[in-house]
Amino acid sequence: MTGVQVVVLGAGVVGLSTAVCIAESLPVCSVTLLAEKFSPDTTSDGAAGIAPFPDIPLERQRRWFKDSFDHLLAIAQSQHSPDAGVILSSGWQIFKEVPATKKPYWSDLVIGFRVMTDRELKRFPDHKFGQAFTTVKCECSSYLPWLEERFRKAGGRMEQRRVSSLQELGDGFDLVVNCSGLGSKTLVGDAGVYPVRGQVLQVEAPWLTHFIRDGDGKTYIYPGVHSVTIGGTRQEGDWRLHVDEGDSTSILERCGRLEPSLKKAKVLGEWVGLRPSRRNPRVERERVLLPGRTGMPVVHNYGHGGWGVTIAWGTALDALGLVRQCLKEMPGAKL
């Protein structure tokens, strides 16, 4: 076997991360990325990029977070930072009630995590507790095209095409990596996948330099390279992709309470995306019976919800490990 033909389905942040990991780490593989949409039309593009999953061991979640954080931190501290849209960002996460866990599982993985002082909390009179830390802000409108370029440099091929079933891929490929997000609902019949609708606004407020995030995850202000992202909504099971003016009004009002100077900000744009959610991300492999074949190895990596940017590189490395296992079982494949 001269080369293993691998197809990665989905070009959001999870699919692109996985495709890059495979193409750069396994020269024996010829990797094709198939997607119906490429940046800037994918869901990850609007993700602001900052709850543990109930059934996944905490150590595995920590590894996903750490691997992703370290990967993005290295970019933020390199010459690639402006092109990739990855920057360091400091700020506050605030809570209306003191949370049961004052130090989340990622507290020692971000930079300079500490509990906010009473003096700092004074500006947020509706909130009783807060955490201050430095994290990495990833702007997918820059990061996804940067990953695409990295994938091409590693010899990867990209093709825009809709895939309705895995059966379509049986002839041309030896291994399928499924990063199709919400598409997995129909593509592999996963009834556990559902959308969580998110709406955000981009505003012009260059005086803002610190992020503010309400602990409920619904209200946040993230300064970026060219604009400030404010949000948001978390509407489960809602497939609407059009901008809801009521949501925009609510976002401006909620964020204005946290940061009054936003009343002076100019709205540059509004954006809606559907987060591909699941009780837990699915990162595992299986063999799928296809006509005329004993079984096609399929590696799944989807269902990250609003945590796509935060854990994408970590789950991509897990998926790479699963691809390696599949290759070991293929006759003639040399790693």
From TrEMBL:
Belongs to the DAMOX/DASOX family. It is an enzyme of class 1 (oxidoreductase). One of its GO terms (cellular component) is peroxisomal matrix. Its EC number is 1.4.3.1. Selectively catalyzes the oxidative deamination of acidic amino acids. Suppresses the level of D-aspartate in the brain, an amino acid that can act as an agonist for glutamate receptors. Protects the organism from the toxicity of D-amino acids. May also function in the intestine. Its cofactor is FAD. It comes from Poecilia formosa (Amazon molly). Its main location: other. It is found in: Peroxisome matrix. D-dopa binds at Y220, R275, G306. One of its GO terms (molecular function) is FAD binding. The lineage of its organism: Eukaryota, Metazoa, Chordata, Craniata, Vertebrata. Keywords: FAD, Flavoprotein, Oxidoreductase, Peroxisome. Residues 6-316 form the FAD dependent oxidoreductase domain. It catalyses: D-aspartate + O2 + H2O = oxaloacetate + H2O2 + NH4(+); D-glutamate + O2 + H2O = 2-oxoglutarate + H2O2 + NH4(+). FAD binds at T43, S44, V163, G305, G306, W307, G308, V309, T310. GO terms for biological process: D-amino acid catabolic process; L-aspartate catabolic process. This is D-aspartate oxidase. It holds the Pfam family DAO.
